[in-house]
Amino acid sequence: MINLKPLIPGSWPDESLRFGIMIQVSDPSNSQLHAAVLYRINNCLMIGDLQSHLQTRRAVVRPSSGLFWIAPNLNQEDQKILAATIDTWLDVNQNKIPYSVAHPGGVIFKDNVWVGDEPGQGLTCATFIAELFNELGIPFINIGTWQVRDGDNEWAKRILDIISESMLPEHVEAQLNNIGQTIRVRPTDIAAAGHLVHQDMVDSLNFCEVDPFSTCIEKTLLNL
Amino acid sequence: MNSATLLDITDFNSYSCPSYVEKLKNIIGSTYKRRIFQNEAHTTYSQFVVDYSVPFGTPSIRRLSSNPIVLSNWVTKVLELSEKGQEESALKKITLSTMEFKESKEFSKLSSDLESFDLKNLPDVILIALVRNTFSIRSQLSCWNNLIIQIEQILVKRNRNPRSLLRGLKSYS
Lengths: 224, 173
Prior knowledge:
The complex is a heterodimer. By secondary structure, chain A is an alpha+beta fold. Chain A is built from six helices and eight strands. Chain A has helices at 76-92, 125-136, 152-163, 169-178, 187-196, 207-222; strands spanning 5-7, 19-27, 32-41, 44-52, 55-60, 64-70, 109-110, 113-114. In chain A, strand 2 and strand 3 (32-41) form a beta hairpin. Chain A starts with a strand and ends with a helix. Chain B is mainly alpha-helical. Chains A and B meet through helix 1 of A and helix 4, helix 6 and helix 8 of B.
């Protein structure tokens, strides 16, 4: 049973939550989902994410019945360190991170600072969160085990079509060339991993552990 | 140990703390023809202390530096914020400062700054943040392996579980 709570006053995260995962249906017409981070800093509950191409967000979160949150089972120390790091990342890398539906692999963040400026390189809302865990050495997901699923290539083409106007032509072309050769980490994978991680977990989660829960979350949110 | 060996190991100022520890371990090991294990080592503002298991017991070697370490501004700030209980600000200062070091690639300076922390007086979360925020560049920091050992030992003494708190940073058998 996955406890997806709506971000409304009746199920608002209490003070003990320093770091959580948020998921929403961002575009119902396209069944598009979006993952973000909830974190508490200076007694404010914040939302932090990569929204689109060169568009990051660090804002005080407001109640919404369309936003659902998960509290990962992480110790307070890791939650506090994740919160401080994401807040600093979003400050230092504000609106600097390219979006890519088909990142070719290799370094994207190096030592907390965005360095992936080659055409085609970029993150999604999901890989942005995965990178946060990687940088701090906190076990989360093992992207090396991820597999291509039905609909991944169609998703990449559709999203690229929607946001390509805001991108340089060479960045679009590089992504088009990479579609079909890269794997996709879905927003629901991040939510599922947020549900599955626990504070004694030594190794990152593999695809086969996450995928069933990811599918379940997707079906729940999209009423499939 | 003969006098020549003693002369070698008293040449403290030639070595940074981790390399001095390694040198000392090798000298004692070769003298007694057995592997020597380090029990504990830590550096504070001006004092360097290391314990070994050796055939004649567990000596504690202390060495007071003639030149007290001058703390960097960011280290001083982290200590100040920690003492005041401003944990979030201290964590953000660690993240920001280590990011700056990573960008400038001043790994040697960062390493000596990390060694200058009086670890025993820092809260658990700050100790863990120091190793987590430097995890990605650990191979370039001469102090990192020693730092995580020291932090592990401090957490054990505080009845915390380092396997859980430091998971992902080192492998435990």
